[in-house]
Amino acid sequence: MTLASLRTVRALAACVLALVAVGVGAAFSDDSADAAAFPPIKHVWVIVLENEDYATTFGNPAADPYLAATLPAKGAMLTQYYGIGHQSNDNYLALVSGQPPNPLTQSDCQVYSGFVAGSVDDGIETGAGCVYPSQIRTIGAQLSARKRSWRAYQEGMGNDSSREAAACAHPDLNQLDGTQKAEPNDGYATRHNPFVYFESVTGKQSYCNRHVVALGSTDGTMPAAALPGETGLATDLKSVKTTPAYSFITPDLCSDGHDDPCKNRPGKGSAAANIDAFLHRWVPRIRNSPAYHQGGLIVITFDESEGPQTDSSSCCGETPGPSSAMPGITGPGGGRIGAVLLSPFIKPGTVSKTPYNHYSTLASVEKIFGLPLLGEARSVTATFGRDIFNKFSKS
């Protein structure tokens, strides 16, 4: 039996087990594979936060009222949303490529290493490494092939030009990653910038510089090291024409809740408060943009669950990749983290109990843009459906 056939059998078995465990109605949205479930969304923003379980964030509104109360009241709360592994890096990679964890991405790629051995089987890289070969695609490459725009906005990238560039920042191949920890005035972390782990992005410097940029400030100010003409999110949001179809937004190690106390600048008193402050700065700007009103979707979630005891539970038919028997290191997944979605096509206060994970998000965005599904996005048991998009005409 080929590896591809084996993976198919495992995915089907996991799907059956999921149905037995939680019931057909819970494992699938009403028509998760039906394109009619998707409204005419033209712009997507994905914001990824750090290392908190559901109970600590969405389950504790007193700690982060903007994330846990204000935003769900304006959109949809996904109470059964899961990470796909541990630690951070593999979750970010899954969100943009569908690649499953391997031992090096599970250890956050301390060394920015290539794949020495392994091959591509059924769209999955079978070896262990960090920088994926050019034939492994991302949603960015898919959008570029369709002449659709995309950008990854990275907070803090380029703040210290002696440490990293202000566009397409990553270590040299097979070198230690010097951004694993924040330093004064610079909280950029390469491991949270998934697109620079793909040669299909970094292989052409001008392409990478154009698509992987510094977030900039809310008034449009860019780092001093920014390239000529490099613009951040605030500037790009000013018109529909300059707003990418797909935006991946990574806060720095203070704003995403990773560091408590913050190391690159004074924080707001707690990880939850730092997260709320970042979202309060940026989410209203996105929601007030012309592109959002044209047909927007904002997805806000965490990479993995790290509560008092690290949660390695999973959902949605997730199976191990060819290089790691335990995606969650001690279990099958990245744990329950929750997510909140905002869109003109969502009734305020919607709550969905359908199980979803990071592969679900990738598959959903790919379906929205009419793209083929990548990697493990093809085997996920549910994509966003009418349980979420409940405020649009389906005719």
What would you say this structure looks like, in words?
The structure is a single chain. By secondary structure, this protein is an alpha/beta fold. The protein is built from 12 helices and 12 strands. A hairpin with a 2-residue loop joins strand 4 and strand 5. Helix 4 runs parallel beside helix 12. The longest helix is centred in the N-terminal third of the chain and has 20 residues. The N terminus is likely disordered.
Mean pLDDT: 90
Strand content: 5-15%
Query: For the terminal residues, how far apart are their CA atoms?
Result: 44 Å
Written as H for each helix and E for each strand, in order along the chain, the element string is: HHEHEEHHEEHEHHEHEHHEEEEH
The major pleated sheet works out as: 8 strands, mixed
User: What is the helical fraction, as a range of percent?
Assistant: 25-40%
Structural class: alpha/beta
Cα-atom radius of gyration = 19 Å
How large is the count of helical segments?
12
Q: Low-confidence parts, pLDDT < 50 over ≥5 residues?
A: 1-34
> Using DSSP, what is the number of strands?
12
- Shape descriptor reads globular
Strand order of the largest sheet: 7-6-8-1-9-10-2-11
How would you describe the oligomerization state of the chains in this entry? Answer: single chain
